[in-house]
Amino acid sequence: MANIEKIKVGSTTYDIRDATAPHELTDIAIAGTNITFTDDVNSTKKLINATDQLPSQTGNSGKFLTTNGTNASWGDALANSATGSNSLTILGTAATGSNNINIGSGTSTGTTSGSVVIGRSATTNSSSATVIGYSAQSTVSSGVAIGASARAAGGSGSCAVGSGTYAYGAQSTHIGYSSSSSYAAVGNYSVVVGYNSAANYTDGIAIGRQATSNAQNAIAIGAGANISQTAGQYAIQLGQGTNNTANTFSVGLSSSLNVQLLDSTGTIPFARQAQAIIEGASDPDTTTVGTVGLLYRNTTDGGIFKCTDTTGSVYTWEELGAGGGSASYDSTTQTITL
Q: What is the DSSP letter of 98?
């Protein structure tokens, strides 16, 4: 063998050279936990006990080697305690149902099948549920609860994502954050997205910070959008403001101005129509440009006309109140009286 001065075992370096000159290493022998190095001068130059590097193996069957950065030790392996077929339980209550996964202290899937529960104290008692996060819970089949204290309850297929979210209606969805259970997706098939928002009736939608849909099929979108009464079914509120009139569409333009864009018949209110009426000093003719439904007022005699047809560049106007009647226009209220 070549001349060797030092041998390193683990983090320890052993000097095997003579005081005056390196010797030739002739043999290395291992007996039990002892390692003996022999050179061409001394029968035994250095004796190393392997127990200096490894902790005792006695009574540590099945454990793994770990370290705190200074000392090595044996740690407990994370055993699968599940008894159900194809199930896995680490630290939590043993899964007795099939095809379950529960990981974390206090987790439980009970006798259900096909569920996944991850996080301390996360639980489900229903099949095919997915629960992730501290104290999250699903009490319905196919429910999803992700986030600390998220709850999927009340109907199958409900989904709650975010800290403190609550999906109580069947197949309802709540995404965001809630400071209390009063902010929730309560209605069946309802959708809630945002901080402290709520949809309390079937098919309601509330999206945005503190948006509220409190009527069936009502849609509230935007911070502070509010449909607060059950009479507001099928109403839409876009932006801050309240709309409790059924089948209407309103837009909040500021904290103090909420404008109705569609009335309950689906028509744009007359006062909201762009260029609801145009004016001229004489009656309109086929060259007077307009669109079907547009009104025209003769400022000379007050006659009111309505565009009834456009064909190419030819425009047809019909005088309102013709045939013995009359029509007047109030420019202040934008009202036509026949």
A: S
Query: What whole-number distance in Å separates Cα of residue 180 and Cα of residue 109?
Result: 26
13, 5 contact by CB (below 8 A)? no
Measured at the alpha carbon of residue 144, what is the angle toward residues 143 and 146, in degrees to the nearest 5? Answer: 155
Q: Is 134:151 a contact under the CB 8 Å cutoff?
A: no
In angstroms, the CA 177 to CA 149 distance is 10
Would the CA dihedral through 228, 234, 235, 240 be positive or negative? Answer: positive
Question: Residue 182 has which token pair?
Answer: 């009063």
Nearest residue to 336 (alpha-carbon basis) of 271, 286, 283: 271
By three-state DSSP, how is residue 270 classified? helix
What are 39-87's pLDDT values in tens digits? 656 555 445 555 556 788 888 888 888 888 888 888 877 788 899 999 9
What is the per-residue burial (b if ≥16 Cβ within 10 Å, else e) of 35-66?
A: bebbbeeeeebeebeeeeeeeeeeeeeeeeee
Residues across the chain: 338
